[in-house]
Each structure stands twice: as structure tokens, then as C-alpha cells.
Design a protein that fits this description.
With 202 residues, the protein is α/β, with parallel strands linked by helices. It has 6 helices and 7 strands.
Amino acid sequence: MSTDTSPKGQPKSRGYGRYVLALLPLIVFAGIAATAAKMLYEQDHGKDISAIPSALIGTKAPSLTLAPLDGANLPALTDAAVKGKLTLVNVFASWCLPCREEHPVLRELAKDDRLNIVAINYKDQPENALRFLGELGNPYKAIGVDPKGSAAIDWGVYGIPESYLVSPDGTILYKRVGPFDAASIKGELDPAIEKALGKAGS
């Protein structure tokens, strides 16, 4: 004989609720794991997750009004620093390990007279940024500080390092998410530079 004297189904309902609450963290974890597995699968099967499109490509670059990096002895990053020049705007920070890996590539790129390289220093401490540049060298013609990340939001920054090729008339031509290496310079940036110069001379 049943000893259940409570309203019909109430103990079972409470039991199901407890099971659902107990399983909820496992369900959330499974969702996160599935997303991570998808990204790893795409990366392992040739999908370049650094090639993230930007809605800003083909549009005018956001206005630049960033204060200079104190102690760097470089101009502030303003519209005047990029106007009329084919410019690579690089977003970096001293705490960013991929930025450190990319920096020697940028130093070599700075030898290219066709290109004006400037930087947005993202959510960094000035003394750390100065130490970074002092240790690794400075490829930039101008640096603007973005301590709160507001300029990065305007530019649609996804993750640093990140770089934007901007035409002399201020149009965003190309975007790179992640560090440059020899392959991406040869296969992506150089063709974009040549195309931009071809248009400028036509």
C-alpha cells in the first residue's frame, strides 16, 4: 500500500525539479565544450579563424582623436597622422603575447616606404607600453592610447593584435585579426597594398 498522502504528483514534481537543477551546470558546460570543439575542428580543417570579416571594410575609418603615449616621443594618433597616407593601424598591448610575437614582423614592415604604421595602445599601462617598445623596438610613426577600449569598439576590434589597412582617403581596405607572419604579409597584406597603390595611381 502507498504511504504517499501528499497531493497527487507533488513529490515527483519536486524530485524532477531537483534533477533539473543538478543537471543545469552539466548542460551549460556541455554547450561551452561543444562551441570550443567546433572552433578547434574548423581550425584543424583549414578554416582560418583569424579571417574574421569586418563590417567596416569599404567604409570610412572612424575618426582618430587619441592622446599620445607619454614618454614615447611620438605624435598622438589623430586624423592628421594618417590623412593622405596609406596607413596600417595596429592595435597592440604590452600584456598581449601574440603582439610580442608579431612585433619583429612590424619592425621589418616599417622599412617599407609605401606604408605609414601607427598604433592604438589598447587597455595598457603607459610604463608597460614604453618598456615593451624599449625592449622590442618601435615600428610606429604615431601612437594613441586607448585606456578604456572605446576607440577599439569604434574600430570593431575583435581581439588583439589586430590591424587595419586604411587608404589615403580614409577608407578601410583590409583587416587582419591576430598576429602578422611572413605568410600573411606575402599572401594578404602585400596584395592589399599593391591594389591600394594601383587604385591611387589610376
